TrEMBL record:
The keyword Ribosomal protein applies. Keywords: Ribonucleoprotein, Ribosomal protein. Belongs to the eukaryotic ribosomal protein eL28 family. Residues 125-139 have a biased composition (Basic and acidic residues). Residues 120-149 are annotated as: Disordered. Residues 10-127 form the Ribosomal eL28/Mak16 domain. One of its GO terms (biological process) is translation. The keyword Ribonucleoprotein applies. One of its GO terms (molecular function) is structural constituent of ribosome. The lineage of its organism: Eukaryota, Fungi, Dikarya, Ascomycota, Pezizomycotina. It comes from the Eukaryota. It comes from Schizothecium vesticola. This is Ribosomal L28e protein family-domain-containing protein.
Amino acid sequence: MPYSNVSADLIWEITRNQNSYVVARTGAGPLFSRDPLNLTNVHTRTHAGFVNDKALGIAPGEKGGVQVISKKANSANKPAARSTVTYGRNKSGRKTYKAVANQAAKAGYRGDLRQAAVARASAIRRSERTPKPDAEKKLRGNAAKRAAA
């Protein structure tokens, strides 16, 4: 959405109250965002991916794993030019987190995005795990004594 002749601050001021990414709930509390390039899902100027020239997004992969979506400054007004890198689910968690952190750091994205990107990748990996079976309930007290006798 950002055009080369329009500043990101102006775009934010125009669209911050009315855009398709805002999730407004009744009552007090923070506004949330569904922006795919917003790592924290909080509707703020610093995290809004559609406004910033350089943005980073983390999404679950189609066949498991993690997708890293990056928006570069030289193609900010071309949404189709976003690059996507997928880290498969067969890769270990630490290798995935290191790759995500390196991509955020070495490509010149803001420093605070690195920690948010790793946290998002970690949450996605955690959600893909198979749940542990419930532990068998142990008998305690008089019920255990009766079962032992």
